[in-house]
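Case study 2.
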Amino acid sequence: MAFFDGPGGTQVPDTVIDAVTRYYRESNANAGGTFATSIRSDAIAAEAHVAAADLFGAAGPEEITFGANMTSLTLHVSRSLGATMEPGDEIIVTGLDHEANVGPWRSVAADRGLTIRSLGIRREDCTLDLDELDRLLGPRTRLVAVGWASNAVGTINPVREIARRAHAAGALVYVDAVHWAPHGPMDVRHVGADFVACSAYKFFGPHAGILYGRGEVLERLPSYKIRPAHHRFETGTMNFEGLAGTLAAIDYIADVGRQYGGAGVGTGRREAIVAGMTAIRTYEMSLFERLVAGLESIPGLHLYGIADRARFGDRTPTAAVRFDRVSPEAISVALGREGIATWHGDFYATGLIERLGLIDAGGVLRIGLTHYNTPAEVDRLLEALRRTVSRAVPASSAS
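Prediction:
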């Protein structure tokens, strides 16, 4: 298999598999017990919170909440945030986001009489229009929900600038970092976000969600929990084996940093994580250059998002493409038969695909590079694409 399906979920290293297995063998117990397995389980959960704080660049583990996935966490926290708002207050969402950072806010708005305003995109390069953001921000704006990067077309949003403008208007900022987390380092305090959410299965870990919440903001929020719960936002018994795997995934990224981040990387986990994600990004974008050069040689190509090589610093190595006369689904099926994993459709970025006018045409073919892909795999993908497209396009049309 050649895995270009990373934006839908990444493969995991052996250390993650071993950590989950070891948890079941050595630590499988509920929280708060006075016996060995429970004590081990609690220690793993506590260290997972510390590791996640290192991943985000948070002030400490008290700013970390684990849950089932980013979507479930956002639905949960949206209820708490909505409870602080009054009828007529406004939430801004974007036309570039995954539905997980749109639907929860629409639901809470319907429940509480809030107004949803949507920030549009520039269709030519699938970027957000910040001038329009300035027009949408107003005295009743309470929240701006935005993605760190688009899971469909790879656009990296200027989160720090968006947060600056939102805070100037008195609004909080909720960031979906699911697609960015496997591709680059996060520093939540530097960008000024109030909330940042991601899912471990997108950065080489198990199915678990993680939410950063700025401490002073979390403390002001009402929480919806049962009385005995020790954590205000982690409800019910946690997925402890998932936390063990998430801890291992974060440590894996740190190990990448120690091995590939250069001689100056220290022993601290946060520094090593940043070095690891920086090395990953450098490698991935070199692969992406190779991919795009090959795609451009295939007749009938349409590449969505930022296509100017001088601006590749503003995108992830995720390509959304279409080819004339052959559907994204047909191509994805053909590639799958050759052991090449890709995705087709809208990937829950429904609003974006609608704005591109592609929802009734089957969306796009998504090719997502990760650091475990190789140049040989990219070449294999390109050759398979050429064969598939050539079978659908007559020679006279391709000339």
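Residues 14-253 form a domain with the Aspartate Aminotransferase; domain 2 fold (CATH 3.40.640.10).
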